[in-house]
Amino acid sequence: MKKIAVTVYAALMGFKDYLYRAWIMFVPFHIIRLYFIKNTVAEVGKGCFFAMGIETRRGVNISVGDHTVVNKRVLLDGRGGKLTIGNQVDIAQETNIWTLSHDPHDDFHATQGSDVTIEDYVWIGSRATILPGVRIGRGAVVAAGSVVTGDVPPMTIVAGVPAKAIGTRKSKLKYNLNHRPWFR
Fold first, then answer.
1. Which of 19, 33, 113, 165 is paired with 56 by a 20 to 30 Å CA distance?
2. Which has the closest alpha carbon to 141: 99, 94, 73, 92?
3. What is the C-alpha to C-alpha distance for residues 122 and 157, in angstroms, rounded to an integer?
4. Are 125 and 90 in contact (CB under 8 A)?
5. Distance from C-alpha of 159 to C-alpha of 79, rounded to nearest angstrom
6. Measured torsion, CA atoms of residues 20, 7, 99, 123, in degrees rounded to the nearest 10
7. Claim: this prediction has a pTM higher than 0.90
8. What is the DSSP letter of 174?
């Protein structure tokens, strides 16, 4: 009987997760999505925007600072450690930020996790991938399609697979993100 109860509980939790990912995160009204996100992740700062279709995994380990924009179909993973996103961060669509991965040297495909920190004023281009254990410094830019495997110093522009420094950002970072399009 206990095994049946565990199976039913697992099925209900799976269905709840499905409803959240496939329905609630696609509701075209930001205020509704924001309500559910604030009740799913550890912290959401003021003035944030979360576009439709974002996915959070183990939200209790995810913190998002003030005036941060998370565009459509972004994955925020908190399963392997803390994911900390600072203030005024712009994350473009289809970006994946991972705190959990598999150990390629383990005979049993074990997982390994590590914290990811994205500091203030970071700009992450479309379809970038941030791997576990990475710190992206204040004002850094990650070019579209890049795979970040190591730390990025402040104000550094990185690109490629794996991402390498290609320049230095010259902005004084005085902007305030206020992106809130209708029905996105």
1. 165
2. 92
3. 10
4. no
5. 26
6. -10
7. yes
8. -
pLDDT for position 180: 80
90 is written with which tokens?
């712009």
Is the distance from CB of 156 to CB of 168 less than 8 angstroms? yes
Q: Which pairing describes strands 100-102 and 111-113: parallel, antiparallel, or unpaired?
A: antiparallel
Supply 20's token pair. 């959240």
Which segments of 39-182 does DSSP mark as H helices, in order?
Answer: none
Whether the CB-CB separation of 78 and 61 falls below 8 Å is answered with: yes
Q: For the chain, how many residues are written?
A: 184
**Distant-in-sequence, close-in-space partners of 89: CB < 8 Å, separation ≥ 6:** 64, 65, 68, 69, 118, 120, 121, 122, 123, 124, 177
Nearest to 33 by CA among 20, 16, 46: 20
pLDDT digits (tens, 9 = 90+) for 33-77: 999 999 999 999 999 999 999 999 999 999 999 999 999 999 999
When pLDDT is averaged across residues 162-172 and rounded to a whole number, the result is 97
Average pLDDT over residues 88-112: 96
Identify whether 105 is a catalytic site residue: no
User: Which amino acid, one-letter code, is at 91?
Assistant: I
> Does residue 157 sit in helix, strand or coil?
strand
Calculate Rg over the CA atoms of the chain.
17
Which two three-digit tokens encode residue 111? 């997982």
Q: Decide: 152 and 159 in contact? Cβ < 8 Å.
A: no
How many Cα atoms within 13 Å fall on the side-chain side of residue 179?
16
